[in-house]
Amino acid sequence: MPKIVAHDERRTQIAEAITQIIMLEGFERVTMREIASKAGFAHGIIIRYFPNKQSMLAAAVKHLYAGVNLRLEESLAGSRGLGGVERMIRALLPFDGESRLRARAVIAFWNHAAHNAELAEIHLANNLRWREELARFLTQAKEDGVLPPEKDTDTIVYGILASMAGWQMIAVLLPELTAKRYLERELSAQMGALHTGQSTVDPYV
User: Fold this and answer.
1) Contacts within 8 Å (CB) and 24+ apart, 17-23
2) Which of 16, 23, 144, 203 is the most exposed, having the fewest neighbouring CB atoms within 10 Å of its CB?
3) What DSSP string describes 136-172?
4) Measured in whole angstroms, how far is the alpha carbon of residue 106 from the centre of its chain?
5) pLDDT of 105-128, one tens digit each?
6) Euclidean distance between the first and the last CA atom of the chain, given in angstroms as a whole number
7) How many whole angstroms separate alpha carbon 40 and alpha carbon 38?
8) How does pLDDT run across 38-56, given as a tens digit for each residue?
9) Which residue from 163, 112, 191 is spatially nearest to 171, judged by alpha carbons?
10) Rounded to 5 degrees, what angle do the CA atoms 114, 120, 126 make?
11) Where are the alpha helices (DSSP H) in the chain?
């Protein structure tokens, strides 16, 4: 009886292998030999699913964001209003070793997305998803009377996401500054600004 092949599972395993290589060793190490070694598949099998490097990178960045979004869904389950905003910020900040490794891959993908329309589109789709989620929580906060109705939701959302992107870069380039106490301070500042009705965007920038 012929062996049943789980194609989706194979694609996921290969995408995870590519992501791990990028996180641990960098983009320049994404070679067929390294992928085959990490995924445990022969070259021919990998090419069958991903015929070129572009398809491999697109699969890896989708896989990376799928993992982030799954963790967000789990973290945000049952959340509402500013409680949801706080949980989302906490989930996006690089609090642990795993999230700092993901930050390496994210920044590497950003660099390539600047010159690659397909990767840029993947980033945009996920960024829009996070914007919508934050905006939904902020709208709830206004409905609950804990956020002034005149506060501009878009400005707050963009400020939060810009701050989170900055912390991703800090986690990679200056990891000593992403100790838990610094990130807790950042989280408190973000939430304190919302509770007092102030903007989360620095007026001097």
Assistant:
1) 18/56, 18/57, 18/59, 18/60, 18/63, 19/60, 19/63, 19/64, 19/105, 22/60, 22/104, 22/105, 22/108, 22/109, 23/101, 23/102, 23/104, 23/105
2) 203
3) HHHHHHHHTTSS-TTS-HHHHHHHHHHHHHHHHHHHH
4) 7
5) 999 889 889 999 999 999 999 999
6) 66
7) 6
8) 888 888 889 999 888 889 8
9) 163
10) 135
11) 7-25, 32-39, 43-49, 53-76, 81-92, 97-113, 117-143, 153-173, 180-195
Copy the structure tokens of residue 140: 């709830």
Instruction: Return d(Cα 201, Cα 79) in angstroms, integer.
Output: 24
CA angle 91, 103, 46 (to 5 degrees): 110
The owner of tokens 């395993």 is 13
Residue environment code for 24-43, b if the CB has 16+ CB neighbours within 10 A, otherwise e: eeeeeebeeeebbebbebee
Distances (CA, A) of 103 to 71, 93, 156: 15, 10, 23
3-class DSSP state for residue 54? Answer: helix
pTM score, two decimals?
A: 0.85
Distance, CA of 72 to CA of 31 (rounded, Å)? 31
Q: How many CB atoms lie within 10 A of CB 109?
A: 24
